[in-house]
Each structure stands twice: as C-alpha cells, then as structure tokens.
Amino acid sequence: MRSDLIESTVKRGWGITNFDIKVLGIILMFIDHVHEMFNGIGVPNWVDWFGR
C-alpha cells in the first residue's frame, strides 16, 4: 500500500523538484545581493538571513 502511494505521488508530480530548489536559491541569493548593495540606506539586517 505504501509503495502505491509513493508511486502515484511521483507520477502526479507533487513535491519540490531540483529545478524548484535551484530557482529558490537564485531568488534568495538575489535578495542577499540587494541587501549588500543597499545596506547603507537602512535595509534591515534580517533580510540577510534568507540568502545565507
């Protein structure tokens, strides 16, 4: 029964793919870079946590 559930889940495409993780990483690194560029004008430090 458990293997049928896993197999049907994989066939439907649920979950996070490798591509999704890479895109998430790119977005978070972009946010980190924006924080570094605008750090002097008052961007809060917690913004830095996501990219690192």
Structure report:
With 52 residues, this protein is an all-alpha fold. The protein is 69% helix and 0% strand. The protein contains three helices and no strands. The longest helix is centred in the middle third of the chain and has 20 residues, at 18-37.
Largest sheet: none
Strand element count: 0
Specify the number of helices. 3
Q: Which ranges are low-confidence, i.e. pLDDT below 50, for 5 or more consecutive residues?
A: none
- What is the overall shape? rod-shaped
Query: What structural class do helix, strand and pairing data support?
Result: mainly alpha
Brief rundown of the structure:
This protein has 52 residues and is mainly alpha-helical.
Helix and strand arrangement:
Layout: H1 2-12, H2 18-37, H3 47-51
List keywords for this structure.
69% helix, single chain, 0% strand, rod-shaped, 52 residues, mainly alpha
